[in-house]
Amino acid sequence: MKNAFFIQRAAIDVLLLNQASALEIGVYLVISKYTDKNGYYSGVGFKTIKERLGIGQKKAEEAIKRLKSMTDKNEGNEGQRLLYSIQEWLCIETGKFNTDDYMVGWVRGWFESEYNHQVWLSNDLVGCHGKEKSPIQYFTKCNRDNHARILLLMYKYCNRQYSGVNYRFLSKKAYSELEYSINDVIFNRSSFKGYHISKVIFDIFCMNISEKEINKILDEMHKSGFINISICTIGEYDEPSVNPKKKQTVSNIKTKTSEQIIGYKKHLAFEQLYNSLKDQLEGSRDSYKLAIKFHTQRDKNKSKPFSIRLIKWLKTTPKIEFKEKVFEPLEDYPEYNEVTQTKFIYRLDYKSINKKSMETTDCIANRIEKVVMSCGLEPASRKGKFYKSYWWFDPGIKAIALVGIIMPKFTLPSKLLAYSNIKPTLKALATADTLKAVKIDRPSEAAQIPINAELMQKQTERF
Q1: Alpha-carbon gap, residue 135 to 404, rounded angstroms
Q2: Which among 52, 79, 116, 276 counts the fewest CB atoms within 10 Å?
């Protein structure tokens, strides 16, 4: 992936279970950013680590020493380490200690775990340009260990389904204040106050931190621009799924080069041998392991004489879960939404994440405001800023709710497609001859927001 690097979700667990400091987290991310295309060998030196984090040689060496001591503590997986020096790793793999000058750098350990996906981060997380402030450098310099750990947790629970952190782990709380039926479409006005926090996750990682302190840290990161809050509606609905594009492989390329044909034949021969071995070994299963490949003279464009990559591997030992509680799905749900199979419906943000104004025709919050104001109701939001209250509407979705999705900076954004009935519903309301708003009375402990009585009276007279 261009301009991005990855870390294993299992590596995040190892860092947190070993109570890694902000300095150690920062050093690991710098090493991870400067890996080769396979993502495991990093040739970065102490000079770059010191420059990126603003630290001295002694602190860098201490952090490296601690990272090299971090392991998966589960029984049977004790050998899985977080980090090796390249010399150390080669000695373990080949039984020889190489003293060549080019043997400089680090190897990130690979963890066999139940996580199916990596966490992808923007390169700018480590090397910010111009006056842009790097959260990693700030947390390291100011010894903000809990800030760095919470940021790591947010990266771990980032969900492409909402283009942000899974709201069941961390989210901004929404409370419904008013409910109106406008031409049989339900409109709500909700306010935001405080955060929903899945405290059980923090307890699993032995992070002895109160909810009050977590709220304070999240507010500080929000004000510093390290996280954004995206106002979204979520709910349950069924829509036909889009079939993924067929992945292009050598087998379905119409015109193949001679090198592609040779490579494809080698791949087929390996698969045939691998499958025959799998049939012979009772109780074997597919797995992977890190392996070294020394380049030949034909690889003239290679800057290093070797590369380290994952290769397919057979194991006869039973699969050991990385950490039972850590891998368990989130059990803590926000109080206002008890449903489990929620999907993104639409986003209310007035501005995009990069602070460029959106087109007003595409801004759902702006269109909703026009509808409610035409009925004489007090507007809730203002253009271009995050406010404490918002108007939103229900296009007929089961268990719909409003939520503030937390979006950490430097995660790769994903495009969210709005629910198909959103635009037709708003268009029908915008072109209606008359709009009639009927207040829906319901028991609520939340304070009621006053309605503009004068505008309401004029609108009533018009009807």
Answers
A1: 21
A2: 116
Calpha distance 463→458 (Å, rounded): 9
Task: Output DSSP code: residue 444.
Answer: -
Flag the least confident range among 29-33, 171-175, 189-193, 387-391.
387-391
**110 pLDDT higher than 60:** yes
Query: For residue 288, what pLDDT is reported?
Result: 83
Residue bearing tokens 């947390």:
139
The predicted structure's pLDDT at residue 171: 92
The predicted model gives 157-181 an average pLDDT of 89
Q: Is the pLDDT of residue 458 over 50?
A: no
268-114-68 Cα angle (round to 5): 95
CA 336 remoteness from chain centre: 23
- Residue 298 burial by Cβ neighbours in a 10 Å radius (0-12, 13-18, 19+): exposed
- Strand residues in 247-349 grouped as ranges (E): 285-294, 306-315, 343-347
Contact 156, 39 (CB under 8 A): no
Give the separation between CA 148 and CA 138, rounded to whole angstroms: 10
- 43 exposed, middle or buried (CB, 10 Å; 0-12, 13-18, 19+)? middle
User: What φ, ψ does residue 375 adopt, rounded to 5°?
Assistant: -95, 5
Q: Quote the tokens at residue 134.
A: 């790097």
The DSSP element (H or E) to which 228 belongs, if any, is strand 227-236
- Distance separating alpha carbons of residues 215 and 206, to the nearest angstrom: 18
Contact 378, 453 (CB under 8 A): no
- Please state whether 147 falls in left (phi above 0), alpha (psi between -120 and 50) or beta: alpha
Which of the four pLDDT bands, split at 50, 70 and 90, describes residue 393? very high
**Buried residues in 154-193 as b, exposed as e (16+ CB within 10 A):** bbbbbeeebbbbbbbbbbbbbbbbbbbebbebebbbbbbe
**Tokens 């595409």 sit at which residue?**
362
Write out pLDDT tens, residues 115-125: 777 899 988 88
- Bridge partners of residue 406, in order along the sequence: 229
Nearest to 410 by CA among 126, 197, 148: 126
CA 350 to chain CA centroid, nearest Å: 22
Q: What is the pLDDT of residue 65?
A: 94
Inter-axis angle of helices 211-223 and 145-156, nearest 10: 80
Q: Which residues contact 272 (CB under 8 A, 6 or more apart)?
A: none
**440 CA to centre of own chain:** 38
pLDDT at 413: 76
